[in-house]
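Give me the fold.
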Amino acid sequence: MRILLCVLIGGFFSTTVFSLECHSCLSYCKLKPNGELSEDCDCAGNSTCNGTTCFAKVEMFSVEETAIIQKGCASNLPYGTSGCHYAGAQESVHCYCDGEKCNTKEKFDNYKPKQLPIVQCCECSEPRGEKCPEDKCERTCRGNYCLIDFDGVEQGCGLGLPRLQNFLRIQNYSDLQGSQTCARYQATQSTIVHGCVCTSPTGFCNRVNASREYQLEKVVSRRVDDQNYCYSLHQKSRKAFDKEIFKKSDTCEGHYCFISMTTSELVVENTTEIDADGKGSYVGLSRPRYEILAGCLKVDDDNKVSLGCTTEYSENSGNPISKHCICESHLCNYYNLLVDEDNTTLRQVILDQSHDHDLVNSPSEAAGAVLTYDPSLRKTSGISQVSVHFMLIFTTYLALF
């Protein structure tokens, strides 16, 4: 059933969207000896949910020879992600479609990932004891995109679509084929990720020196006088969070603010059974695991970022599988975005009196003057209030690339 909805954006009714009915289920199966899915590996049932997009995810655990298949709905997914793609590695395939109950194995061609252009990349890992050359490759690899992480310097290849594409909510990622995208995000002082993904057909676009120069010029040094204060937070729990968790938050600065949450994880657990080959058997399941990331984001090009939120869920309820939002005003990445509450309350920012107008690390613990900040008074023009459309963490964003 297609339901016509009106989306409320910034207090006004905006673009109409169609709500699709999607299959919703979770199952597991044993992988073939070659690591591929068996012909009968799928999940089915009578449960459905409604969203603007349907999805099916296949997560393969090669050591346990087990695959988990999960189906459900998504809202406000970035354009250009339809079909099946590797989600960075062969063990993870994510599929999306926009038809009525379209998330079936048959319509996804047995969950076969789309073929994408292949590029050659540098491969090296200083955290593993290697010394990565500045202007050449220690080793090479082949994938659908090259990547480099400047924290410790790691270079390599990825398959399918990079997670950075979903994190930035890039529309029509395929339009960026042949180019470079760099970003830096911080959730806490110990949760900082900054690096680049690139797809230059000439190859080896993730060389250390050239990538670092681009990152410094286009990301770190861009819009230095036009940034937003953001809540900074990273917490995990077996129980659901509420707004009180923000008493543990710090602050940071970036071009944009973000907030992401996951509520479950897919895992395999061994059983006491032994199969015909004398091996242990495993079951796949989803179990509660709550994780929240809030912080600041810098990117090389504002046109690559889409404000709003993406949500994935398996039931028509207020408890999503994941939700990810990007906004662009001071302290906009508050808990209210996760629960679709109005973003009209004033925020209090604690200022350390010993440092003129510097935000201290912990608003909940610092002593000093209290400044009430009204987002409508932001000094820069072109304020973008978060439009509660939505994003995805399909998995935790600590591994963005």
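Helices lie at 163-167, 208-220.
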